[in-house]
Structure formats: C-alpha cells, structure tokens
C-alpha cells in the first residue's frame, strides 16, 4: 500500500505542475478555451478504492459512519473530507495524538518521523522505535481503520478522493466495474467515484438471498417441518423457472452463469454448518439481481399447505404461525423499487429527494423482516446489515445530487 502511494505521489507531483495555471485548450466542440486541467474522477471497484483510501472495505468512503452504526437507515452522518483524514493521520503519526482523545490527555510517542528514502531520495515516513504492531494497530483503530501512510492523493491540487458525488452519471453505461483515471479540462469540482453498482447488485442482493434462506430455514422449524423441506422446494421452484437445470438459460430470466444456483446451495450449507464455506462460487452480479426479481415469485405461497395444517393443530390462536414470506416479499419489493429508481435516468430534484426516503425505508424494511445478526460475547448485537454495502443505500440520493 505504501509503495502504491509512493508511486501515486510521483505522478501527482508532475500532474500538479500542469494543473497549476490555466492554459489554452481545444475542446471537443472545436472551440479554444482558457481552462484549468484537473483531476475529475477516479472510478474504481471496492478493493482499488480501499487501497486508494488506505483503509478497509468496511469503512464508508463517503461519510464518517462508525463501523458499528452502518445499518442505521435514517441517520445522516457528516461527509468525509480528505483534509480531515490527512490531519488526523498526520496527528497520530507524528504527534501521537489520536482522534477522540480528551484535550488534557497526554499524547503517546510519535510513531513516525519524516525521513528520506535512501534509493529515491524522496520524502518518506519512517517508523520510530515506539511504532510496535500493537501501537500501530491501536492508532489505526482510533482512526477508523485508516492506515498511517502518506496518501499520495493528499497532495493533488483541486481534488478530494473522498468526494464521491456523481452528477455526471446519467446513463447506465458508465456504471461499470472498472478502474480508470480521467483527466478533464473543465473547472468543475473534482470528484472520485466508487463503482456503486457492483456493491448493490452483488453485495446487497447476496445478503438478501442469504437472509431469505435463513428465513425459510427458521420457518421450517416454526411449523415443525423436517430441515430442508422448504429450502429444497424453494430451489425446485426456481428451477421450475428454468428450461432445464443443465442449460444456462431460464425462461423468465437469462442467467449468465449457472453458478448462481450452486451459490444458493452454498448459502444453505453455510446456515446448516454455521461455517463459512471455502468455495463460494463466483457469481455474476447481474445474475444475483435477476434472482432477486425471481425470489418474489419463488417465495409467494411457499409452505402454505404445511403452515395451514400446522395452524389447524394449534388450539390457542397465539401458537399459530403467520406467513413470514409476505412481509419479506414486501421488503424485497421496497428494495427493488428504490433500486429501480436509483438506476433511472436523469432524475429530477424532487425525485431524488423521494429516492432518499425510499432507499432508507428499504434498508429499514429489510432489517425488520430479516432481524438476523451476530451476538458478541459482551452481549452486543450486530445486524448482518451493519456493513458497508447495505449502508451504501443511504448514499444513493447523495450520489445523484
Ligand atoms: Zn456513509
């Protein structure tokens, strides 16, 4: 990571020179304009973005939401700025002062000093003797997971790698999973873009699928069925939508890769053994989102005869079990509805405002019907939705304004 940033720093130094003063540039419309050249965007997938920001995938690139509050649907956290991150990282590295430290509290020893790289003769942060693994990791935790590394992009003029608003993105065309760097000759505010589609289509949809499998398994227990009865039926229903389980084609949906069906089995196996499967098949993000659409039909009326039979056997009304899939279908619908709106072209301001409510409501609905998570030894509960991907739903509207 440090090497990447040392490299970026070299490129940025040269770039800064050409962005220093305006110059005559010929635009695509043929007209010469006196304009500044500046960085416009950095389009990247998750891992590249993590590397660019020197942090983990569970750190929101847009706001300061702490790791344990990523699931909150209606909280609006402050936007992140590269300047603030730089100040905090430098303070921790050279002054031993961590964010959140009380003003009177003594600072720790500096973890880095400014030195010169013996080979390149460029400035470089050198660890001090006080920089033990433990101290480093403690400092990194206090910084919310950001590494104590000089980010090569801090020095870039007119550019903030954490500003990820994307007003340019009207067409679906640009929402591709790619890593590219653009230079632009327009003096608009500089922005960095994280590819948001992959996160939504793969990350969030996979989570919904996982939650659905869990809900079906829980329902089997609730109405006293043998394990896997309904999970198997759910898969059979899905295959019922296929021409054949062996061809990569589905009547309602054309899947790019049949592996998604294996993914379904893997999810079920994980729930059974409570162990993370080693070989999660790599599934196509488009297939996962198509499966999300099919899910609604697959879940409708699932296990109804058994549920009715079970309820007939219960003398007390309070022992009867209601259909859990209706509310789940409702929540999935609210997610798909908001997502569809997000992908729509050229939304107007009132529509974007509505989208903000829709996406946050969808996140809330999903958590209501899927109340699953992990209970830690100290008693705290962490929802499966308390991760960066579902959290990104709260930024859908920001990404369009
Ligand atoms: Zn955020």
List the helices and strands and how they pair.
Blueprint lengths: L1 H17 L4 E4 L5 E4 L2 E7 L1 H8 L28 H14 L16 E5 L6 E5 L5 H10 L37 E5 L8 E2 L1 H27 L6 H12 L18 H15 L11 H15 L4 H10 L11 H19 L5 H21 L3 E3 L5 E3 L4 H5 L3 H5 L1
Parallel strand pairs: 3-7
Antiparallel strand pairs: 1-2, 3-6, 4-5, 8-9
The chain binds zinc ion.
Explain what this protein looks like in three dimensions.
It is built from 13 helices and 9 strands. Strands 6-3-7 form a 3-stranded mixed sheet. Strands 1-2 form a two-stranded antiparallel ribbon. Strands 4-5 form a two-stranded antiparallel sheet. It folds into 2 domains: 193 residues, no CATH class; 203 residues, no CATH class. The longest helix has 27 residues. With 401 residues, the chain is mainly alpha-helical. 32% of the residues are buried. The site of zinc ion has 7 residues, from loops.
């Amino acid at each position: 990571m440090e090497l990447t940033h040392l490299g970026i720093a070299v490129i940025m130094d040269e770039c800064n020179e050409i962005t220093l003063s305006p110059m005559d540039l010929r635009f695509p419309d043929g007209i010469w304009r006196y304009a500044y050249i500046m960085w416009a965007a950095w389009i990247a997938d998750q891992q590249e973005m993590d590397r660019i920001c020197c942090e983990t995938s569970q750190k929101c690139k847009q706001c300061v939401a702490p790791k344990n509050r990523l699931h909150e649907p209606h909280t609006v956290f402050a936007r992140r700025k590269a300047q603030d991150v730089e100040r905090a990282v430098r303070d921790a590295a050279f002054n031993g002062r961590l964010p959140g430290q009380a003003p009177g509290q003594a600072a720790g020893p500096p973890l880095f000093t400014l030195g010169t790289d013996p080979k390149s003769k460029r400035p470089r942060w050198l660890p001090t003797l006080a920089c033990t693994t433990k101290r480093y990791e403690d400092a990194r935790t206090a910084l919310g997971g950001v590494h104590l590394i000089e980010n090569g992009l801090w020095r870039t003029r007119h550019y903030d790698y954490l500003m990820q608003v994307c007003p340019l993105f009207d067409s679906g065309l640009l929402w591709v999973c790619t890593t590219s760097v653009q230079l632009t000759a327009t003096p608009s505010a500089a922005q960095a873009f994280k590819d948001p589609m992959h996160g939504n289509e793969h990350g969030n949809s996979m989570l919904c699928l996982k939650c659905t499998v869990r809900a079906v398994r829980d329902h089997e227990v609730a109405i006293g069925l043998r394990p896997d009865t309904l999970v198997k039926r759910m898969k059979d229903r899905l295959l019922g939508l296929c021409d054949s389980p062996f061809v990569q084609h589905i009547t309602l949906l054309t899947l790019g890769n049949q592996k998604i069906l294996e993914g379904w089995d893997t999810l079920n196996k994980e729930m059974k053994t409570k162990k993370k499967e080693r070989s999660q098949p790599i599934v196509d993000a488009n297939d996962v989102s198509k499966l999300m659409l099919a899910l609604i039909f697959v879940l409708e009326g699932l296990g109804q005869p058994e549920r009715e039979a079970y309820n007939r056997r219960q003398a007390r009304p309070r022992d009867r079990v209601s259909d859990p899939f209706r509310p789940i279908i409702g929540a999935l619908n609210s997610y798909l509805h908001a997502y569809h709106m997000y992908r729509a072209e050229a939304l107007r301001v009132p529509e974007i405002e509505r989208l903000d409510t829709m996406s946050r409501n969808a996140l809330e609905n999903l958590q209501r019907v899927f109340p699953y998570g992990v209970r830690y030894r100290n008693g705290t509960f962490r929802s499966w939705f308390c991760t960066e991907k579902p959290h990104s739903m709260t930024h859908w509207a920001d990404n369009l304004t």
